[in-house]
Task: structure prediction
Amino acid sequence: MPPWHDATCFRSSSGTGWLVALGLLVGFGIMSTYTMLSYAALFKATNTKSIGEIWKKLINHRTEWVVDLSTLALCFGCCVFYSAFIGDIFASLSIAIGLKGLLSERWFVLLLISAGILLPLCLLDDLSALQFSSFMGFIGIIYTVCFHSIRLWDKSYTPGSRLLSYVSTKMKPLFPAEGLQMTKISHGTLILSNMMCVAFLAHYNSINYFQEFETSPTTQKYNMTVSIGFGISLLIFAAMMLTGYHLFGTAAQPLLLNNFPLTADPWANLARAATGLAIIFGYPLMFAGLKTSLFSLIDSFTSPQTVLPTLPWWNLLAHLTKPKEEKEVILPVQRISRQVQVRAVTAVVVLITVIALQCSEEEVCLLYTSPSPRDRQKSR
Result:
């Protein structure tokens, strides 16, 4: 889960020092930026359309499916998390604005959004159609960062404040006696590292991003855009980690907006709406990577293949003297139809939604965080 809604990396019992956390954030940001830029160069050099095809040309044509399956599994899991949080956020919003009956039920809200918004967006072929909605999602995230910063500055949730009285006991600020440490490392640092990997991960769409510039794509333009994007993301992640901890300490939830009351703070509800819309608009971008790998896998296992004769592996002399153009081994004969694509996308969206319906926000959080000191005391 992206750390722009998480301060749990600073937990007292299994947390990470602020200097180590920021160091990991910068390190993963630099590595992710470099690898994202590398895909553009590989795309131009190999004239391919996906990461799996790059692997096929440069490494081994027989194991292309491993790359596609790995990308599929990653994007599928992230889409499940996105769906779970969409259900949580908009169900909370419906309760906050006073909706009753089915419109306040999490399962119905998630089904409604999945069928009416997510599925049509996931069926889009052109990512450039999401430019405006993605920009609005970005504005929503900026507002959320500003909201948390203002609440930290005006001390609305410090002991004795009016708004703090509306916060449930579980969500109230809790700070360790030793304070925020600088260089602490624990098993929680591994959890944080995993979160950093997912936070900066957009590589499954790198080739699509490169191809869909408004003007003719150039490596220089792509490199500049990606570097600026990752730099802004890094600053947002750092701001949310630090403000989240200073607001609620170790009681900060992975979805930090859950710490705020549903009705007493209207600006928090606006932040919920902004974040929810940002996740909805980011969902089809994540799903685009899933689609690419899914279609590649379907095509690999269903389309007939033309196999060219190859020389025995032990005939070293023949391999050295064989003309370079004869090294292609498998050529796809046809691609899957649009009808099959629509059915596959619909089936996957339904499966993701069904899984998300069974996962509450707290269950999703347990995958990333260890119990807080308050939770452990309750379990005793």
Notes: Strands lie at 305-307, 330-332. Residues 306-311, 313-321, 323-334, 367-380 have pLDDT under 50 and may be disordered. The two ends are 29 Å apart (CA to CA).
